[in-house]
Amino acid sequence: MSYQVAQNGEETVVFLDGDVDLERSPSARKVLLEWVEKGQNVVVDMSEVSYIDSSGVASLVEALQASKKNNVDFYLKQVSEPALKVFKLARLEKVFNIIEG
Amino acid sequence: MQNKDALLTLQFEAYPHNLKEVRGLVCQHLKAADFGREVADEVVLAVDEACQNIIRHAYQSEQGGLIDLALYLTNNTLSVELVDYAQPCNPDCCVPKPREPLQPGGLGLHFMNELMDSVSYEKPPAGAGNRLVMTKTHNNKNSGNNKRNNE
């Protein structure tokens, strides 16, 4: 149920994978907020996300807002096609900082 | 909730851990009825969001509630019916309201209304609490969201 986390220089990389749904989004929310509130720059690798729903999106929005309060960077990386479709549906694709590489 | 004309009827307990299996079954039956991947994915997300609303708001995450799900296909119109046994909700709560992208709450309802042609509460069967009906009409079962395609 937990997500893999790695340190990459000054960034913390959180790897979301599989279905980020009502069952698993509380874990995603917890790990994202944990690192953001520690004052870490966070990159969320979403290349292996096969499904995300409103609860998963809400976890990312909450982490984004927490990153602004904590004055740290919060990026999404390699967003999978299913997740990008949902971001567009939520009109959030330009709200998140999305990097390809 | 048996109906010989239904694509799928299903009763399950209103727990988050059941939703993955429900999504899989809905997708499987839509594909068996020749719906394309894009349309199937859209309906699956709408069904998932509706189930989440039942779990979180109708049953208020209490244990033991049941959800009846049925999919019907009549000509080109797919109907999704979801029945719960919680306290009746205010029918106005499924009316879409303007929302800002970062606004908390209401995102699931926004998805349901964007992905389906209609979302409405209708009279529940005797003994039930709520009956949500969503429809989606398609001339081409392989093409995606009608609303966004028409924009």
Describe the 3D structure:
The complex is a heterodimer of chains A (101) and B (151). Chain A has 101 residues and is an alpha/beta fold. Chain A has a domain at 1-12 and 20-42 and 53-71 and 82-92. Chain A contains three helices and five strands. In chain A, strands 1-2-3-4-5 form a five-stranded mixed β-sheet. In chain A, helix 1 (25-37) packs parallel to helix 2 (54-69). By secondary structure, chain B is α+β, with helices and mostly antiparallel strands. Chain B has one domain: Heat Shock Protein 90 (2-Layer Sandwich), CATH 3.30.565.10. Chain B has four helices and five strands. A five-stranded antiparallel β-sheet of chain B has the order 1-2-3-5-4. In chain B, a hairpin with a 7-residue loop joins strand 4 and strand 5. In chain B, helix 1 (19-32) packs antiparallel against helix 2 (37-58) and helix 2 packs antiparallel against helix 3. Chain B is globular and about 40 Å long. Chain B starts with 5 loop residues before the first strand and ends with a helix. The chains are: A alpha/beta (101), B alpha+beta (151). At the A-B interface, helix 2 and helix 3 of A face helix 1, helix 2 and helix 3 of B.
- What's the helix count of chain A? 3
CATH fold topology of chain B: Heat Shock Protein 90
Cα Rg of chain A: 12 Å
Q: N-to-C terminal Cα separation of chain B, in Å? A: 37 Å
- Largest interface in this structure: A-B, 22 and 21 residues
Q: Which bin fits the share of residues in helices of chain A?
A: 25-40%
What is the quaternary state of this protein?
heterodimer
Summarize the structure.
The complex is a heterodimer of chains A (101) and B (151). Chain A is α/β, with parallel strands linked by helices and 101 residues long.
Write the layout of secondary structure elements.
The complex is a heterodimer of chains A (101) and B (151).
Chain A: E1 4-8, E2 11-20, H1 25-37, E3 41-52, H2 54-69, E4 74-77, H3 81-89, E5 97-99
Parallel strand pairs in A: 2-3, 3-4, 4-5
Antiparallel strand pairs in A: 1-2
Chain B: E1 6-13, H1 19-32, H2 37-58, E2 66-74, E3 77-84, H3 107-115, E4 118-122, E5 130-137, H4 146-149
Antiparallel strand pairs in B: 1-2, 2-3, 3-5, 4-5
Helix pairs in contact in B: 1-2, 2-3
